[in-house]
């Protein structure tokens, strides 16, 4: 496992992170024992970056991670936690809250559920349109001074917001969707991050399984939020799966899987770009780890670009209503 500094001021993290969202029902039913075994296997493989959100399964994900980390050395794990999304008892989404007082309340609950004294990287999951980002980051900065948080991150925000946040407190990373078919950050956000010494932790590198080589149109079951994604609907999904077929030819020629090509592509975009893999099973984790050994030549990268040119995806990555609320999409619709 290679290790990289997360931004100019952040901790040393593994070259690939484990995103734990799918272990708490966001993609349909998951197996608790398999999830914990996957976390253990990732740690054994040298992955130290675990990503979660307090709203994944309404706290379930944090408690699952706490169970998996029981007995592990705290300093061996970098916990990245998102907060701010509001849920109702039926599992619905009811808004976002990143007010300073709410921020400290969410943090207190996460510390309790995770069973830790501090969180390594704490970040609002989105920009709260009703709260200046300076106020939100200022509140987390207070928690850094108090020892409850080590570093501050951002998620799904645009360049102007990144600059405002970084003026209040050093930002170690921006967590944002980045994949072969979600390349909007290349327009200006990536450049802004590099100018400010902020790393990118890229989620959705397999576009929620769409370009994994495993997803089929009849895969989605009850509780799978992908059924509401434009990229997984109607003619869009057929066009997007055709891109996967084109990638398959390249993967076959290199003796690797489509997923490994897609992960390796993200990993080659710079030492400041860390793929966060949403594996919730051991076999998927092992496949993702294999991507670290895939070397993409300039010829490979050119072939990938021809197979999946920028902007080739059919449909937006979220519904139009959600896209309208994404600060990171203010000037881009890729």
From TrEMBL:
Keywords: Oxidoreductase. It holds the Pfam family Aldo_ket_red. Residues 16-307 form the NADP-dependent oxidoreductase domain. GO terms for molecular function: oxidoreductase activity. It comes from the Bacteria. GO terms for cellular component: cytoplasm. SUPFAM superfamilies: NAD(P)-linked oxidoreductase (SSF51430). This is Aldo/keto reductase. It comes from Phyllobacterium endophyticum.
